[in-house]
Each structure stands twice: as structure tokens, then as C-alpha cells.
Design a protein that fits this description.
Layout (H helix, E strand, L loop, with lengths): L2 E9 L4 H11 L4 E8 L3 E8 L2 H10 L4 E12 L4 H11 L4 E8 L5 E8 L2 H10 L3 E3 L1 H5 L2
Antiparallel strand pairs: 1-3, 1-4, 2-3, 4-6, 4-7, 5-6
């Protein structure tokens, strides 16, 4: 149940984040989640969008450098310890988390954790067995 994430490479200066988000908005592309990682010279904007194909076409048409990758999305309660439970299960099973970010869902009292792991199928099976709820793209978009 991998979810597609788009990583966009951008210069580490004032403006690119505003330009990219405005570009997506102009094309009616809704971002569900985002994360920005930076180094001295460049940044990586990681986004989860409702229409990855459309977003990639817009980025390509505007000569932006991007890459699509698979990540795991997990629904959880918006409460202390929820994230610790998810990543704790992965750690116990020796499944490393490369990076993670989360967002709150619309008025439900729930949150969603996005995880980059090297074995999505194993992580998903483990979390399901533990009673947790990995999401597919459709489920993520309806939160």
C-alpha cells in the first residue's frame, strides 16, 4: 500500500518554495502533506498530493527537477504516544526509518504519519498485525 511522494529539488534561497506551491495551486493540485529538508546549497521539498500524475506533468512542463518515491502512510490518533507506538514497532522489528513527517487530518482527531522505510511491504504487514492502519492513496486522500 505504498503512497507516492514527489521530491522536488530547489535552490536554498528565498522564493523557490513560494513559487512551487503557487505553481501547484494555479493548477488546482491539492497538497496533503509537505516536508522541507535543506542542505547548504539546495533543499528537497517532499510532497504528497491528491493527483501525482498531474503534479508531475506540471513540474516537468516547468523544468523542475523531481523524483517520485514510495512511502508508507499510517493513520494514527492525534495524541501523545501515537507516533512512538508506530516507530517503536518498526524499531523492534529492525526496520529502519530513513525519515518521517506527519500531518493532522480535518477535524477528526486523527493524524497521518508518512514514513520512508526500505521495505514497505514488511513494515505494512507488521503494523497491520499490530492493529495499526496503513493507508493507500485513496484512503489518504479521503482523510
Amino acid at each position: 500500500m505504498a503512497v507516492r511522494q514527489i521530491s522536488i529539488f530547489m535552490e536554498n534561497k528565498v522564493g523557490p518554495l513560494a513559487e512551487i506551491t503557487a505553481l501547484l495551486a494555479q493548477h488546482q493540485i491539492n497538497m496533503r502533506a509537505l516536508s522541507v529538508a535543506e542542505t547548504q546549497d539546495f533543499g528537497i521539498l517532499r510532497i504528497i498530493v491528491e493527483d501525482p500524475e498531474k503534479a508531475e506533468a506540471v513540474l516537468r512542463d516547468n523544468q523542475l527537477i523531481f523524483r517520485e518515491s514510495a512511502v508508507l502512510a499510517v493513520a494514527m490518533e492525534d495524541s501523545p504516544g501515537s507516533m512512538a507506538s508506530v516507530v517503536g514497532k518498526l524499531a523492534q522489528a529492525d526496520i529502519p526509518v530513513e525519515y518521517a513527517y506527519a500531518f493532522i487530518t480535518h477535524g477528526t482527531g486523527n493524524a497521518c504519519l508518512i514514513l520512508k522505510v526500505n521495505d514497505i511491504a514488511a513494515a505494512e504487514a507488521l503494523l497491520k498485525k499490530a492493529g495499526m492502519k496503513p493507508l493507500d492513496e485513496h484512503q489518504l486522500n479521503t482523510l
